[in-house]
Design a protein that fits this description.
Length: 133
Amino acid sequence: MLMMHRSFLSSVVCMLLGAITISACKIEVKLISKTPSPFQIQVFVPALKTKTERFTFTRQNEQQIFVIEGKTCNNEHWLFKTWKRVEGDNWVPAAERKVKLEGTGWIAVHVNEFYMPTFHDRLNIFCSEGLCY
């Protein structure tokens, strides 16, 4: 009986420590172009009241990396929004994707030929409420 009690207490302590650890985030986002067509992408993190600059990609396999850091990053959906170039240097909205992200680690975000952000490899990042594959 005493062993079961200790095991239960250990489980509760681990869950509490996990909850405390997950309450803050430091996420390195690796943006990778998978299209030869020019596009722009911007990331909005409403829970932290922040957004990135608009990153411009001009060729396939080009990469940009940025870090989002704060508390409770997953209180609201992150918005990944893309624009495509039309007629000269005019940009129009192309696609967007929403997910919730949390953790301390990195995630790779590819932008395909339809300008859709897709989530691929990740390390120590919890992704939910969206297409996280």
